[in-house]
């Protein structure tokens, strides 16, 4: 290519890099705002987005997750956009490094999720079950979220009704939540065992497996974008030496 064509190609890629990372920056700001909203007014979030959001809220803390992801996207978007605009080799290399670290982390997380699903269930049980025992029935908002989850998803506790053994709710009411007995009362251990309502973790995991193709396609798309972003940033980085 002639020097003019090379310069035109460089300018085009630079502009695309700026626009792409500007979109990432704005997306990060949006997620950060939603995360703060969830932490400040989680009930409104539930009312708008319904039962699915309540299910997710119990598996991960959506507010903190959105805040963390939003902050990361803000940093990536700033490094990529400002680095391309100012043609800064330092910022472009930082952008490349951050995206590479995230890409490696995503690959590692995917492998761990496939290989150690049982371990994830064990870890969640250790974290969520104590909260169920302590807060269900005593914390109004926590109880409301779990009631919505268990009713709409048709599940009981994280694993099953035994999550409520020795809990505040059981000690106070002498029974399990009615969702653990297919909405029949009184929900005692015999009826809960006969009903065999599955835990919410298994239900959500089954939903994820059912939509594994969609999730895999989204993950592949994100990975492709990350690889493309790294390639473009490295192209700009190398071309700056020729200018």
UniProtKB/TrEMBL annotation:
<dbReference type="InterPro" id="IPR000301">
    <property type="entry name" value="Tetraspanin_animals"/>
</dbReference>
<protein>
    <recommendedName>
        <fullName>Tetraspanin</fullName>
    </recommendedName>
</protein>
<comment type="subunit">
    <text>Interacts with SLC19A2. Interacts with NTRK1/TRKA.</text>
</comment>
<dbReference type="InterPro" id="IPR018503">
    <property type="entry name" value="Tetraspanin_CS"/>
</dbReference>
<feature type="transmembrane region" description="Helical">
    <location>
        <begin position="91"/>
        <end position="116"/>
    </location>
</feature>
<keyword id="KW-1133">Transmembrane helix</keyword>
<dbReference type="InterPro" id="IPR018499">
    <property type="entry name" value="Tetraspanin/Peripherin"/>
</dbReference>
<dbReference type="GO" id="GO:0005765">
    <property type="term" value="C:lysosomal membrane"/>
</dbReference>
<keyword id="KW-0472">Membrane</keyword>
<keyword id="KW-0458">Lysosome</keyword>
<comment type="similarity">
    <text>Belongs to the tetraspanin (TM4SF) family.</text>
</comment>
<dbReference type="GO" id="GO:0005886">
    <property type="term" value="C:plasma membrane"/>
</dbReference>
<dbReference type="Pfam" id="PF00335">
    <property type="entry name" value="Tetraspanin"/>
</dbReference>
<keyword id="KW-0812">Transmembrane</keyword>
<feature type="transmembrane region" description="Helical">
    <location>
        <begin position="214"/>
        <end position="238"/>
    </location>
</feature>
<keyword id="KW-0325">Glycoprotein</keyword>
<dbReference type="InterPro" id="IPR008952">
    <property type="entry name" value="Tetraspanin_EC2_sf"/>
</dbReference>
<feature type="transmembrane region" description="Helical">
    <location>
        <begin position="12"/>
        <end position="38"/>
    </location>
</feature>
<feature type="transmembrane region" description="Helical">
    <location>
        <begin position="58"/>
        <end position="79"/>
    </location>
</feature>
<comment type="function">
    <text>Structural component of specialized membrane microdomains known as tetraspanin-enriched microdomains (TERMs), which act as platforms for receptor clustering and signaling. Participates thereby in diverse biological functions such as cell signal transduction, adhesion, migration and protein trafficking. Regulates neuronal differentiation in response to NGF by facilitating NGF-mediated activation of NTRK1/TRKA receptor tyrosine kinase and subsequent downstream signaling pathways. Plays a role in the inhibition of TNFalpha-induced apoptosis.</text>
</comment>
């Amino acid at each position: 290519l002639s020097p003019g064509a090379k310069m035109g190609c460089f300018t085009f890629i630079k502009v695309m890099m700026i626009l792409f990372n500007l979109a990432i920056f704005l997306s990060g700001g949006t997620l950060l705002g939603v995360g703060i909203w969830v932490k400040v007014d989680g009930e409104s979030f539930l009312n708008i987005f319904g039962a699915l959001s309540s299910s997710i809220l119990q598996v991960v803390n959506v507010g903190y997750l959105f805040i963390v992801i939003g902050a990361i996207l803000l940093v990536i978007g700033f490094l990529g956009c400002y680095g391309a605009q100012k043609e800064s080799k330092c910022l472009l290399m930082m952008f490349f490094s951050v995206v590479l670290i995230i890409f490696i982390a995503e690959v590692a997380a995917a492998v761990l999720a496939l290989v150690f699903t049982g371990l994830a269930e064990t870890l969640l049980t250790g974290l969520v079950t104590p909260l169920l025992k302590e807060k269900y029935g005593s914390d109004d908002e926590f109880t409301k979220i779990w009631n919505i989850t268990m009713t709409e998803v048709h599940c009981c506790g994280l694993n099953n009704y035994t999550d409520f053994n020795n809990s505040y709710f059981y000690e106070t009411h002498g029974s399990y939540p009615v969702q653990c007995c297919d909405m029949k009362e009184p929900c005692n251990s015999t009826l809960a065992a006969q009903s065999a309502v599955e835990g919410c973790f298994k239900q959500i995991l089954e939903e994820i497996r059912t939509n594994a193709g969609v999730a895999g396609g989204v993950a592949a798309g994100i990975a492709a974008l990350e690889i493309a972003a790294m390639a473009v940033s490295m192209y700009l980085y190398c071309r700056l030496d020729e200018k």
